[in-house]
Specification:
The protein is mainly α and 138 residues long. It is built from 9 helices and no strands. 67% of the residues lie in helices and 0% in strands. The protein folds into 2 domains: 2-86, DNA polymerase, domain 1 (Orthogonal Bundle); 90-136, no CATH class.
């Protein structure tokens, strides 16, 4: 089902937008994620039967996000998501799972220390403890 992949993509877009401190847009993606999580039908089926208008009937999905769903269904990608990943090539799923690490911390880890995943975080030199605190390196 495309639903699960879109949930992952939109969740990550929301995190990337929070990292960039863009107001309001992350909440829109989070609402779309909630709508997709509760959806019992496959978005592909909805699009094939009802088009973009059918996608906009999904709770939390407006015109722009419906277009991104359509783009994904046609190409297997969302260009704006791919652009965000190129700009900040971090493993959001890995890092966000660490207690105490949120979008702003991930941004700092990447830009200040070039940490992009758990492996990098574990290898981070002890000299950077002042940045993170002792708990991540113990």
């Amino acid at each position: 089902m495309a639903n699960q992949e879109l949930i992952r993509i939109f969740s990550e877009i929301a995190i990337f937008l929070k990292m960039e401190e863009i107001p309001f847009k992350p909440k829109a993606y989070e609402k779309a994620v909630l709508g997709l999580e509760t959806l019992v039908r496959d978005v592909k089926e909805i699009y094939e039967r009802e088009g973009t208008d059918g996608l906009k009937e999904i709770p939390g999905v407006g015109k722009n996000i419906a277009e991104k769903i359509k783009e994904y269904l046609k190409t297997g990608k969302v260009k704006s998501y791919e652009k965000l990943k190129r700009k900040m090539p971090v493993s959001l799923e890995e890092l966000i799972a660490v207690e105490g690490i949120g979008p702003k911390m991930i941004k700092d880890l990447w830009f200040k220390l070039k940490i992009k995943n758990l492996k990098d975080l574990e290898k981070a030199p002890r000299a950077n403890q002042n940045f993170l605190g002792n708990s991540y390196f113990s």
